Amino acid sequence: AYELPEETTEEELVSLVEQLNMSRDVHGILVQLPLPKHINEDKIIKAIAPEKDVDGFHPQSVGALSIGQPGFVSCTPAGIIQLLKRSGIEIDGKACVVVGRSNIVGKPMALLLLRENGTVTVCHSHTKDLKEVCKRADILVAAIGKPKFFNHEYVKEGAVVIDVGIHRNEQNKLCGDVDYEDVLPLVSAITPVPGGVGPMTIAMLMYNCVQAAEMEIC
Question: Is-above-0.85 flag for pTM?
Fold first, then answer.
């Protein structure tokens, strides 16, 4: 791991990424986001070789996902799919609502659910009647970055709720985008915060790193 000072220039960071691209000892490259304001995030992501893009953020990785081609998939959405499958939750034909359209979670999440034959709706800050849309969801993915935003008014009985948010409340305790205690009596399954989506994100990052190493061997 390379821990760089905040004053590191964009040129220095690009140079390091390019060195790691060339190194046969490095199979995966992850640049921790967000970056300081003087560094162009998009430029850094594009500097990473797609075959080492274990975060799945490079435009080539995203493009491959959108057309169903092999490539690295963003770790949090990939982890959520694994979490659903390994919990025996059917995605095929289900009404799936993703709240949030970020490049890291919302958009790739929608594409992965679509790949699994879910019927997908993506909601965002301009969505009208958000509560009504969410209440139609068999699978609700909350990824808007607002603590305890989703209460029982957003969730239908028997729904599966995936909470991607992580925050600290007034008591400095971790919480998610979902009001867990309020929603719990309604749902058939729900991910806790902490201990739900987070560990799956790390697991998928490790999975991507292994895949990258195996591709190098081949």
Answer: yes
